[in-house]
């Protein structure tokens, strides 16, 4: 078994589980929390991430998912208008302050939901898309299942308290990732800091937008039972991190925890990329082949997240049985590359050949075998 140790290589496409090293220890006052690297899906930290919790106005993110989907499909336009029902107008809680009986542009309603967290605007959109809020809630549940949000259930469009209306931190991180990935043309609304409607100016309630750490979304929420929560995200050095927290005791605690956790997720880790250049990692000896060696490389590029404090401690090994016997096909799997990341899982990626190698002719093969028997030296020396 050939066993080579190297620190020169790293690659493209792998997802880790949660890091648990004391070096990376971080705590939070939030009752539920998760921090993920958006590009790789790596969980950087979690706390009660699968516990069911009231989602409050964070529920509006899935409502907006449905709106964005309709816009993308062309069944809805930003310039379309929707009627404000008495139910929407009467809804308590945070408001956009849309007048009953008025037709309001969809784009204004979007800003009314995202920036102002208007329950009234949310219901107007739900009724405009599905006819009534109950039918819209049923559509939300179907969409949640399709997105992989298996521990979520929605009873309304706004997140109004209901015992059967809940989600988890992990599910909300899945939702946030889907919004960012699927609707880049509409995601920009989450970064708007204020919106004025009917001469009433309201600021975005997301405190991360004002902290100067590269945040550009998504949504806050609060209920008496669930506490203060937030789905947040930001970008630094072309790397995006998503956080979900809930169960904080005050808006100030939410702002401080969200800022601290997002900054940690952005600053404490790095994405490493390997094997993208397709160069030979090494050349393996070949037995009874028309060539004495064959190039080896990773089957595909690889990307993964590593803590900055531990990035010099990677353990990369190349393993295969040498010599390789001809004939050999190009791209043939002949071994494995293993990458051990401290406090992370071991990554394995197939090792493949970079070229084909034909067998020796019958006569040449006999000579080579005879030479091996008499001298101990083979064709691969």
Present the secondary structure layout.
Elements: E1 2-6, E2 32-37, E3 43-47, H1 60-73, E4 81-83, H2 86-90, E5 103-105, H3 106-114, H4 119-130, H5 133-147, H6 169-182, H7 184-187, E6 194-197, E7 200-203, E8 215-223, E9 227-236, E10 239-248, H8 251-267, E11 269-274, E12 282-287, E13 293-298, E14 302-307, E15 315-320, E16 324-325, E17 333-340, E18 346-353, H9 362-375
Parallel strand pairs: 12-16
Antiparallel strand pairs: 1-15, 2-3, 2-10, 4-5, 6-7, 8-9, 9-10, 11-14, 12-13, 13-18, 15-17, 17-18
Helix pairs in contact: 1-4, 3-4, 4-5
Structure characterization notes:
The protein is α+β, with helices and mostly antiparallel strands. It has two domains: 114 residues, Peptidoglycan synthesis regulatory factor (PBP3), Domain 2 (Sandwich); 219 residues, DD-peptidase/beta-lactamase superfamily (Beta-lactamase). The strands form five sheets. Strands 1-15-17-18-13-12-16 form a seven-stranded mixed sheet, with no helix packed on it. Strands 3-2-10-9-8 form a five-stranded antiparallel sheet, with helices on both faces. Helix 1 packs across helix 4, helix 3 packs across helix 4 and helix 4 packs across helix 5. The longest helix has 17 residues. It is elongated, with a radius of gyration of 28 Å. The N terminus is likely disordered.
- What does the average pLDDT come to? 90
What share of residues are in beta strands? 25-35%
Secondary-structure-based class equals alpha+beta
Count of helical segments? 9
> Measured on Cα atoms, how large is the radius of gyration?
28 Å
Number of strands: 18
| Sheet having the most strands | 7 strands, mixed
Strand order of the largest sheet: 1-15-17-18-13-12-16
Quick one: overall form? elongated
Give the N-to-C terminal Cα separation: 17 Å
- Overall number of structural domains: 2
What fold name goes in the CATH topology slot of the largest domain?
A: Beta-lactamase
CATH class of the largest domain: Alpha Beta
Helix fraction by DSSP (H/I, runs of at least 4): 25-40%
CATH superfamily of the largest domain: DD-peptidase/beta-lactamase superfamily
């Amino acid at each position: 078994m050939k066993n080579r140790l190297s620190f020169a290589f790293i690659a493209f496409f792998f997802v880790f589980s949660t890091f648990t090293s004391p070096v990376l220890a971080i705590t939070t006052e939030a009752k539920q929390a998760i921090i993920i690297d958006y590009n790789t899906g790596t969980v950087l930290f979690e706390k009660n991430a699968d516990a069911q919790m009231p989602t409050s106005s964070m529920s509006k993110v899935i409502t907006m998912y449905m709106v964005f989907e309709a816009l993308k499909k062309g069944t809805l336009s930003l310039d379309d208008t929707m009627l404000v029902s008495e139910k929407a107008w009467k809804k308590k809680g945070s408001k956009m302050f849309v007048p009953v009986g008025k037709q309001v542009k969809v784009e204004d309603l979007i800003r009314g939901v995202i920036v102002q967290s208007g329950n009234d605007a949310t219901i107007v959109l739900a009724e405009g898309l599905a006819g009534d809020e109950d039918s819209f809630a049923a559509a939300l549940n179907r969409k949640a299942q399709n997105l992989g949000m298996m521990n979520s259930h929605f009873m309304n469009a706004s997140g109004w308290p209901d015992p059967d209306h809940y989600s988890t931190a992990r599910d909300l991180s899945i939702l946030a990732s889907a919004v960012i990935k699927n609707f880049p043309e509409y995601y920009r609304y989450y970064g708007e800091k204020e919106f004025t409607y009917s001469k009433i100016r309201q600021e975005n309630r997301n405190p991360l937008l004002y902290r100067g750490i590269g945040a550009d979304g998504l949504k806050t929420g609060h209920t008496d039972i669930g506490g203060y929560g937030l789905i947040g995200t930001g970008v630094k050095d072309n790397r995006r991190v998503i956080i979900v927290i809930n169960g904080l005791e005050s808006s100030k605690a939410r702002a401080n925890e969200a800022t601290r956790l997002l900054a940690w997720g952005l600053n404490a880790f790095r994405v490493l990329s390997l094997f993208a250049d397709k160069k030979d990692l090494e050349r393996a000896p070949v037995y009874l082949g028309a060539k004495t060696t064959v190039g080896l490389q990773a089957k595909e590029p690889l990307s993964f997240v590593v803590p900055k404090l531990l990035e010099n401690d990677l353990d990369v090994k190349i393993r295969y049985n040498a010599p390789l016997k001809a004939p050999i096909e190009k791209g043939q799997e002949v071994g494995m590359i293993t990458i051990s990341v401290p406090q992370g899982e071991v990554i394995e990626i197939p090792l493949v050949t970079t070229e084909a190698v034909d067998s020796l002719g019958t006569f040449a093969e006999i000579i080579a075998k005879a030479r091996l028997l008499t001298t101990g030296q083979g064709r691969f020396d």
